[in-house]
UniProtKB/TrEMBL annotation:
The lineage of its organism: Bacteria, Bacillati, Actinomycetota, Actinomycetes, Micrococcales. The chain crosses the membrane at residues 7-28, 34-54, 66-87, 120-143, 182-200, 212-232. Belongs to the FliR/MopE/SpaR family. It is found in: Cell membrane. Keywords: Cell membrane, Cell projection, Cilium, Flagellum, Membrane, Transmembrane, Transmembrane helix. Pfam families: Bac_export_1. This is Flagellar biosynthetic protein FliR. GO terms for cellular component: plasma membrane. It is a multi-pass membrane protein. Coiled coil: none annotated. GO terms for biological process: protein targeting. It comes from Georgenia ruanii.
Length: 248
């Protein structure tokens, strides 16, 4: 019984951490094997379990608490995923206006469909999270959630809903910060082509404009990658604040 009582905090913490890692970037990427996520979840639970304490639960109570910890980990993971979806959204906006959406393909790594810039920006954000140690902020926020939501606590669903609403707004703002200048240039290019068609209909400006827009997107879209490190660092801070808002 003493061994079982000592294992209860470890198992409960492992469920919360593992579910979080399955849903939250950058660990949610399919390039990270499921076995690695499970091992990392148990390893982090070992690091967190010693200061944690769980009540002596019955079998039914323990199963119910496992479900509650899975809900907490899933809620926090979804919140982080929504925040970091800004980079992929920026890439999708560029694909739509630049004409790359017609070359949309299925990415088996992220299990999403998108154009070339959608996949490029998403992969770049994942690499930057590991290269800049942004993932440590995400894990640190998860670790601090055990202080505000100790084992046996329940997630405040209204607070989670409010944080998700704010995260969606932050996601759109960040996406426009990345793709906004290029969107403006592509819009002006469309306006210019439209005026050219009115002035000289025989030129068939829109037929000429399709490769022109692709060239503009390739050139300026590459420069937009320069802003990604700063954006990803800001998103990591936003994700940390979102976790603190829900767990606080």
């Amino acid at each position: 019984m003493d061994l079982v009582r000592e294992l209860e905090p470890l198992l409960l913490a492992a469920v919360r951490v593992t579910v979080f890692l399955v849903l939250a970037p950058p660990f949610a990427h399919r390039a990270v094997p499921a076995a690695v996520k499970a091992i990392l979840g148990v390893g982090l639970a070992f690091a967190l379990a010693p200061p944690l304490a769980a009540p002596n639960l019955s079998t039914a109570g323990f199963i119910g608490q496992l479900v509650s910890e899975a809900v907490i980990g899933g809620g926090l993971g979804i919140l982080v995923a929504v925040v970091f979806a800004a980079v992929q959204t920026a890439g999708r906006l560029i694909d739509n206006l630049g004409g790359f959406e017609m070359g949309m393909a299925f990415d088996p790594m992220s299990m999403t469909s998108g154009g070339q810039f959608t996949q490029l920006y998403a992969l770049a954000a994942t690499v930057l999270l590991f290269a800049s140690d942004g993932y440590q902020l995400v894990i640190g926020g998860l670790a601090r959630s055990f202080d505000a939501l100790p084992l046996g606590a329940t997630l405040d669903l209204p607070a989670l809903a409010g944080s998700l609403t704010g995260a969606v707004g932050q996601m759109m703002v960040a996406a426009l910060q990345v793709a906004g200048p290029l969107i403006a240039v592509l819009f002006l290019a469309d306006v210019g082509l439209g005026l050219l068609t009115r002035v000289a209909p025989a030129l068939n400006a829109f037929a000429l404009g399709f490769p022109l827009k692709i060239l503009i997107t390739l050139v300026l879209g590459t420069f937009a990658l320069v802003a990604l490190p700063r954006v990803v660092a800001g998103l990591a801070q936003d994700a940390l604040g979102g976790i603190a808002g829900v767990a606080g």
